[in-house]
Amino acid sequence: MPKSPAPLYEQIRQLIVAALAAGEWRPGDALPSEAALAARFGASPGTVRRALDELAAEHLVDRRQGSGTFVSTHAAPREPFRFLRLVADDEARGFSRELLGCRRVRATAEVARTLGLRTAEPVIEVRRLLHRRDRPVVLDELWLPERQFEGLTTEVLEAHAGALYALFEARFGVHMVRAEEKLRAVAATPEAARLLGVEEGEPLLSVERLAFTYGDRPVELRRGLYHTASDHYRNDLN
Amino acid sequence: MPKSPAPLYEQIRQLIVAALAAGEWRPGDALPSEAALAARFGASPGTVRRALDELAAEHLVDRRQGSGTFVSTHAAPREPFRFLRLVADDEARGFSRELLGCRRVRATAEVARTLGLRTAEPVIEVRRLLHRRDRPVVLDELWLPERQFEGLTTEVLEAHAGALYALFEARFGVHMVRAEEKLRAVAATPEAARLLGVEEGEPLLSVERLAFTYGDRPVELRRGLYHTASDHYRNDLN
DNA sequence: CAGTGGTCTAGACCACCAT
DNA sequence: TGGTGGTCTAGACCACTGC
Predict the structure, then answer these.
(1) Rounded Cα distance, A233 and A88, in Å
(2) Does residue B69 reach within 7 angstroms of strand D, measured from its CB?
(3) More reliable by pLDDT, B88 or B161
(4) What are the HTH gntR-type domain coordinates in residue numbering (chains A, B) (predicted)?
(5) End-to-end Cα spacing for chain A
(6) pTM higher than 0.90, yes or no?
(7) At what angle do helices A8-21 and A45-57 cross, to 10 degrees?
(8) Cα-flanking dihedrals φ and ψ of residue B7, to 5°?
(9) CA B53, B86, B209 angle in degrees (round to 5)?
(10) How far is the CA of A16 from the C1' of D18 (A)?
(11) Does residue A237 sit at the B interface (CB-CB below 8 Å)?
(12) Among partner residues A178, A201, A206, which is closest to B238 by beta-carbon distance?
């Protein structure tokens, strides 16, 4: 408990996040203007501006001079793979996707704990490959609470052309805000080796990702195996 | 070339960075107050404040209410390993260091190109191990332009207790501002296996880091091999 | 207590976008 | 041309630090 109340711009920021979580404005929508929000929250325009600037820094909203402030969306043409840090050594871009499977399973103890579910609660498991220049480079396996992703099937996935996170927004109203990743080097299992076209035991980069929606609620656990022969995981430190 | 000149707060930000690069204020020093800087640059306090806020967001300065704005330093007690993202699975903290060697060599073509030097220009090569609970977890190899690090020897390294980057600040006036890392999974070479106490061919996380000082000038190339059995590389995405 | 950064307000003017 | 966000200013008041 803080001694003094949070500053007004922070309170306003939280109110806007709550409105986003409640779906008052959907990804891609315009928010009300600064002046309108100032009137709504009874604050001066400068204070609302500060709240919006913080939200823009967290990539929750997207500010465009002359046109307005918009809810961020993974469907934006600029960043179809905003959270994927794997880049080709020669800077080549883009992947093609191959769906391996989608089924309803019971959460293992670890998946349940990580996603904040009860053990054995139903989850949807998706497996897929990403190819670069027709060579497999990523084997992804991901788990989603069925409660929030009811109706996600192989057919739905096959029918959707854009990024996975864009599908989650459009069809299930779940927008991914941020993620935490844990990286390790591991040896390829026989199955991973077969799917990625490498030798068994060959080093692969293991990437475990926990993705969060508004309000820091975890909604996706993902395990990726990256073949880093002519690609690498890029990270900027500051 | 931008059509319109950069905004005033950005010009002021760049002037402050230039002053930092010139050593007008050293790491740990206090900058002049907002009001004093406003007078110096002929701008209003609000504009100077914005420039300082941006510098704080980049971790170039550290703002402390009631006492002032200070030049960031790697000697700060809070973050002795600010750029090291390797954390123990059980959240244990801290490493002990073991120096393996420090010698003057000629830059390979790749090292020279990356650091912006001429081929075969002299560089200082340092090799060391980091241990967690008396077990080796990181094998580091790094190269520094001799021009900027003249006098860096085994003795100097042995005599210094704090972080490497703190030594670079205190002794050579080089402050590391940001870095870019490229990660891959690789197989342990015989030498790496021996030093890290693992089997030859075992998967290791390879981390290649290029570190920059003020003005985006590259000054250190580092290759790390991380043993990720009970540690992992942590990354936050947003 | 003096000096510092942190918050909040109010308003002027500009640059950009859509129509 | 009207509405949007972006810049810049000016000043009041508060919270915190260190002497």
Answers:
(1) 9
(2) no
(3) B88
(4) 6-74
(5) 30
(6) yes
(7) 60
(8) -60, 155
(9) 70
(10) 38
(11) yes
(12) A178
**Which tokens in the block code for residue B170?**
């205190």
Confidence (pLDDT) at A98: 96
CA distance A36 to chain B (A): 24
Quick check: A183 pLDDT over 60?
Answer: yes
pLDDT at residue B70 is higher than 70: yes
SS3 content of chain B, % helix, strand, coil (to 5): 25, 35, 40
Chain A interface includes B100 (CB < 8 A): no
Between the alpha carbon of residue B77 and those of residues A94, B26, B80, B82, the distances in Å are: 42, 17, 6, 11
pLDDT band at A217 (very low <50, low <70, confident <90, very high): very high
Query: Can you identify the CATH homologous superfamily of domain B86-233?
Result: Chorismate lyase-like (3.40.1410.10)
Task: Say whether B86-233 and B8-71 share the same fold.
Answer: no
pLDDT tier, A4 (very low <50, low <70, confident <90, very high otherwise): low
User: Strand runs (DSSP E) across B166-216, as ranges?
Assistant: 178-187, 203-213
Residue A1 has pLDDT above 50, yes or no: no
Helices and strands counted in chain B (H then E): 7, 10
Residue A2 pLDDT class (50, 70, 90 cuts): very low
Do residues A88 and A230 touch, judged by C-beta distance below 8 A? yes
CA atoms within 13 A on the CB side of B152: 31
CATH 1.10.10.10 fits A8-71, yes or no: yes
Nucleotide nearest to A53 (CA to C1'): D5
Contact B212, B176 (CB under 8 A): yes
Contacts of B42 (CB under 8 A, 6+ apart): none
Task: Please compute the mean of the pLDDT values over residues B17-46 and round it to a whole number.
Answer: 96
The token duo for A110 is: 């670890």
Q: Where are the domains of chain A?
A: 8-71, 86-233
